[in-house]
Amino acid sequence: MVTALAMLMVTLELSLSSVTLPAIGSELDVGSAATKWVILAYALPTAALAIPLGRWVDHADARKVFLYAVTGVAISSVLAAAAPTFWLLVVARVLQGVLGAAVAAVYMPIVAASVPPERRGRALGYVATVMPLGAMAGTSIGGFVADGLGWRPVLLLKLPILVVVLWLGYRVLPRGEGALPRPDRALYSDTLILGGAVTALLLAFDRVEADAFALAAVLAVIAIGLGVWWTRLPSSRPILTLSRRPAFGLPLLGLLLLASYIGLTLFLLPFYVSDVVDGGPSMMGLALMFFVGAFAAGSPISGNLADRFPVRLVATAGAALSLAGTLLTLTLGPDAGVVDLAWRLALIGLGQSLFNVPNNTAILAATPPDMVGAGSGVSMTVRTLAFTVGPSLAALAYTLGGSGAGGFRAGVILIAVLQAAGLLAAVAARPARS
Fold first, then answer.
1. pLDDT for residue 14
2. Which bin fits 396, alpha (ψ -120 to 50), beta or left (φ > 0)?
3. 53 near 136, Cβ under 8 Å?
4. Residues 358, 314: contact at Cβ < 8 Å?
5. pLDDT per residue over 94-143, tens digit each?
6. CA nearest neighbour of 98 among 58, 139, 150, 52
7. Which parts of the chain sit beneath pLDDT 50?
8. What pLDDT is stored for residue 130 in this prediction?
9. Percent of the chain, pLDDT > 70?
10. How would you write the chain as a 3-class SS string?
11. What does the alpha-carbon distance between residue 251 and residue 257 come to, in Å, rounded to a whole number?
């Protein structure tokens, strides 16, 4: 319960802040392009620091890290809401991202320490149920609050829940014997080099979406260079060794490929509805509610199945359903309505829920006990990259396909190929030997 609420607060930060961008731009006198940094300032450190903080958490008292990080998220939220200028707001958002990364890094270690292996599927399924439902509700509530009271109160909406999370965490989380270790040279190196590589790669794909291909290429070269440099560091060896194990690496590969669905739901379908169907945002928003609902409803079922049956079997079934739903969007016509979109999105949402929970369970089972934080960081980094790469590749295929129906078809075929490869990875994955 406590980790589910904490992860909800971390993910909710992106959806809540997205509805405030127009109001922020108007009040602080910045353009729409600049307001995007309200999102990036949070997302980039969350992704860039996932692995370094995960390694640090493996040597720390998880309970203390959790309580301090949640407290920091609350304080930084107040600082962001009170920011008098745009750039102070961005600085506060960077601080939120760093602390959010710490919460995310300690999430899996807490689950591993608190939940027996035979019940972890259900525990992860509960988390996967709370997060999309809360994010959907938070976005709606945030929109109403922003319209009535402005953007600053929106950034404070989560404070009451953070207080509850702190109280529950203090009462129910097991007390550890460790402390908060002083960051060493390896941590600083990982943060600067690996964090820089992840940041450059994410910004490169962001520039692809903006059609700034030359800058995207430069950023990609920087990311590759820093990534190669990191693989030469001694601190990278345990993570690289873990990632080469099929029981860990194949579920990660499946996660990277299957999460490409985000390019369909957040880019291809909205543009298809707008350009071909001649529908509005409300039509797409209503259809997406069926995706969220199916994902939330399927997650606890998936968790129970993952505890009863081989996780590879459940994950493969989910991957197949997601691929089927993706392929069925190719049968949409220019007269498609909400129902046509809704049932296809519901099928994809159900498939993703059946895949994600057992896949996360498999990743956790394949991670050595002394590397759960690092493994969680790798998983989070891969997921973030997938959620960035998916829309960028979809946008590129849509443009090369001539936009409209032709671009939509090209994008869906690309996403389907990626998901088919993810399905093969799910089939090939083998459970870790106990």
1. 65
2. alpha
3. no
4. yes
5. 998 888 888 888 878 887 777 777 776 777 766 666 665 666 566 667 76
6. 52
7. 434
8. 66
9. 88
10. CHHHHHHHHHHHHHHHHHCCHHHHHHHHCCCHHHHHHHHHHHHHHHHHCHHHHHHHHCCCCHHHHHHHHHHHHHHHHHHHHHCCCHHHHHHHHHHHHHHHHHHHHHHHHHHHHHCCHHHHHHHHHHHHHHHHHHHHHHHHHHHHHHHHHCCCHHHHCCHHHHHHHHHHHHHHCCCCCCCCCCCCHHHHHHHHHHHHHHHHHHHHHHHHHCCCHHHHHHHHHHHHHHHHHHHCCHHHHHHHHHHHCHHHHHHHHHHHHHCCHHHHHHHHHHHHHHHHHCCCHHHHHHHHHHHHHHHHHHHHHHHHHHHHCCHHHHHHHHHHHHHHHHHHHHHCCCCCCHHHHHHHHHHHHHHHHHHHHHHHHHHHHHCCHHHHHHHHHHHHHHHHHHHHHHHHHHHHHHHHCCCHHHHHHHHHHHHHHHHHHHHHHHHHCCCCCC
11. 10
Question: Which residue is listed with tokens 């829940």?
Answer: 161
Amino acid making up residue 84: P
**Residues 347-397 pLDDT 10s:** 999 999 899 888 888 888 888 888 888 888 888 888 878 877 787 788 888
Burial of 215 (0-12, 13-18, 19+ CB in 10 A): middle
Any idea what the Cα angle at residue 194 is, between residues 188 and 195, rounded to 5°? 80
At 210 the pLDDT is 67
The predicted model scores a pTM of: 0.81
Length of the chain, please?
434
Mark residue 66 as left, alpha or beta (left: phi above 0; alpha: psi -120 to 50; beta: remaining): alpha
Please give the Cα distance from 386 to 426 (Å, whole number): 16
Q: Which residues contact 71 (CB under 8 A, 6 or more apart)?
A: 166
> What is the Cα–Cα distance from 82 to 95, expressed in whole angstroms?
14
